[in-house]
Write a structure and sequence with these properties.
The complex is a heterodimer of chains A (313) and B (292). By secondary structure, chain A is α+β, with helices and mostly antiparallel strands. In chain A, 38% of the residues lie in helices and 10% in strands. The chains are: A alpha+beta (313), B alpha/beta (292).
Chain lengths: 313, 292
């Protein structure tokens, strides 16, 4: 017998959410969604959640189980129970609960719309379809697998503190068009995606990769947009300046010049940005934590420089 | 046990106390750490923003250096560990790509075969052999000290590259704390991101991330946070006085590097481990240990 500890919420009856426990024998091979259905059909008909296809295709049934977002229909319940034979179910994070495990996806869809999730070909349609080679399609194959379940959005570490961040799902969707050989707006797209709240606000934590139930792996897609933005010369922002400063430091010396990177990331004419570095810089200076003023190269740095040269970097 | 030590840049720069304490911890444990002086920066997932192939080629060169020495690599930074493991996965998952990278290395006299293993310091300790060695060499058990782990997300995710058994609920660092005689504190934020990678791009969000994690540790009764990542340390310690949520609550908590905590139990003094170099005072730790 397993315990399902479910976060219940019905604003018409009670202002605050609360946990309710249900006991259920998990049938052999049952998915988490099967168990949720059994609870609803046999124990409490008012239990609310989204579901549809039961085959990890529609993306409706994403919930948080034991603290992490997943697709309820994609995982066997026996594989999720913790050491206390319990599964704790909560609504997805970073969105407002509507009732029980149902959340309001409005901000999620708003952000998807914000990245213009449609092809902008820039020329009149051909007589037949717009063709791509196999190689061209492979560049957008992974992002095309996103089923908009919201699992990545739910657990994104940045969205927990900043609603302005576009988030992993919208950025993965953006890569679907940034990388599309038939699109004519690549430069405009990466310019917009380099604004605050875009690609450079991603903290690289890979939480989205971990939660994604498909090969979309949003963080990997975000990195691909970053590469395109740098290639296209969209450098006038702290994120791009940081990447270039880092890159150039390794190119020069084989390692990171920690004294230069904060200043170069902010930009030499960004006075408020430079001023914001003073408190931490001063604190570290007073404790003797400042990196060596004379930056040293690694041994055999010439071989590193050779590799940069060989790759035309 | 002999390893090629990949120091990373920050341990020799802004957190030199990490290098100092790693040397002491290795000495106390009888580990032979040979510094890889010709290894380049791991790229921290940033060089690969510009050129993924370049980042992998540079890291493959690092692996080749260790292979020539016949040694496995030990890292003392979660970011280095995660970044190097990512390159390892790229190379070992695609023979054609590995050949392409080896062709780039060839002129410099380097080749990567795939022999060398890459382990974080925590993962060396959290083995049967590491634990046994640790337990037999402890001189000053950290009795009474409640320690909250902060793993550093690169060492956990993507989970396929992590050496921790269950990256969503890892126990390796807490097992080390218990072996040192300390009391591990489990709290949800221990596997979260510290926010450091975006401190130059979105400082408000970055400080909120580190603040929430530290407050979570404090609210779960921790006396100290210990991390395996010097970048997390910068975020959690060097930036701590600026974190709004802690300022509001007039709260603070010391943050140690994992090797400092280990070496403390091995009998080294706080000053030998550079604990006087921290931004947030670590004196509270001495007081707790003296009281027990």
């Amino acid at each position: 017998m397993a315990t399902f500890r479910i976060k219940r919420f019905n604003p018409e009856k009670q202002a605050e959410p609360y946990f309710e426990e249900f006991q259920l024998d998990i049938p052999s091979g049952a998915t988490l969604l099967d168990c949720m259905n059994l609870i609803k059909w046999t124990l409490d008909g008012s239990f609310s959640y989204r579901m549809s296809c039961r085959s990890a295709i529609c993306g409706s049934c994403a919930v948080k189980a034991n603290g992490h977002a997943l697709l309820a229909c994609q995982r066997q319940a026996e594989h999720i129970v913790d050491n206390d034979e319990t599964i704790t179910l909560e609504p997805l994070g970073n969105m407002k609960p509507v009732k029980d495990l149902v959340v309001d996806f409005t901000p999620f869809w708003d952000k998807i719309n914000k990245v213009k999730p449609y092809l902008e070909p820039g020329e009149a349609p051909p007589e037949k379809e717009r063709r791509q080679s196999q190689e061209e399609f492979l560049l957008i194959d992974d992002s095309s697998t996103c089923i908009m379940c919201g699992a990545c959005y739910s657990d994104c570490n940045v969205l927990e503190v900043d609603d302005n961040f576009l988030g992993p799902a919208a950025l993965a969707k953006a890569q679907r068009f940034v990388g599309d050989s038939r699109d004519s707006q690549t430069l405009e797209r990466v310019k917009e995606l380099s604004e605050p709240g875009g690609i450079w606000d991603c903290t690289h934590c890979a939480e989205c990769v971990e939660r994604c139930p498909k090969p979309a792996r949003p963080f990997d897609r975000i990195k691909e947009i970053m590469t395109v933005a740098l290639e296209k010369g969209v450098h006038n922002n702290n994120g791009a300046r940081h990447a270039l400063s880092f890159f150039n430091s390794v190119k020069r010396s084989g390692n990171l010049n920690e004294n230069r990177i904060p200043v170069e990331s902010m930009g030499f004419f960004n006075i408020p940005g430079l001023l914001s570095l003073i408190p931490v810089g001063l604190r570290m200076f007073l404790k003797g934590k400042v990196p060596p003023i004379i930056h040293h190269s690694i041994d055999e740095v010439d071989d590193v420089k050779r590799i940069f040269k060989e790759l035309d970097q | 046990m002999k390893f090629a030590l990949f120091t990373g840049c920050v341990a020799k720069g802004a957190t030199r106390e990490l290098m100092l304490s790693t040397t002491k911890a290795a000495e106390g444990l009888g580990f032979d750490f040979i510094e890889m002086k010709s290894a380049s920066c791991c790229g921290a997932g940033v060089v690969s923003e510009k050129s993924p192939l370049l980042a992998d080629a540079l890291n493959a060169r690092t692996f080749s250096i260790a292979e020539k020495q016949g040694l496995d690599i030990v890292t003392i930074c979660s970011t280095c560990q995660g970044t190097l493991k990512k390159t390892e996965a790229h190379l070992n998952g695609d023979a054609e790509y590995k050949k392409k990278v080896n062709d780039i290395l060839d002129e410099g006299g380097h080749q990567y075969s795939g022999k060398t293993r890459i382990k974080h310091f925590a993962n060396i300790l959290a083995t049967e052999e590491g634990m046994a060695r640790l337990k037999e060499r402890i001189k000053r058990p950290l009795t009474g000290l409640k320690v909250a782990a902060f793993y550093g997300c690169y060492v956990l995710r993507p989970s396929e590259n992590s050496d921790f058994e269950n990256p969503d609920n890892p126990t390796g660092m807490e097992e080390i704390f218990a072996a040192l005689g300390a009391t591990p504190v489990y709290y949800p934020s221990r596997i979260k991101c510290c926010g450091f990678p975006i401190v130059m791009m979105n400082k408000t969000a970055s400080l909120d991330m580190s603040g929430n994690a530290l407050l979570d540790a404090i609210n779960h009764g921790a006396d100290v946070v210990a991390t395996g990542c010097p970048l997390c340390h910068l975020s959690l310690d060097s930036y701590q006085p600026e974190i709004p949520i802690l300022q509001k609550k007039n709260d603070s908590i010391p943050v140690l590097h994992l090797p400092q905590l280990v070496a403390l139990a091995l009998g080294y003094t706080p000053n030998e481990l550079g604990m006087d170099k921290h931004i947030v005072s670590t004196l509270k730790i001495n007081e707790i240990l003296s009281a027990h």
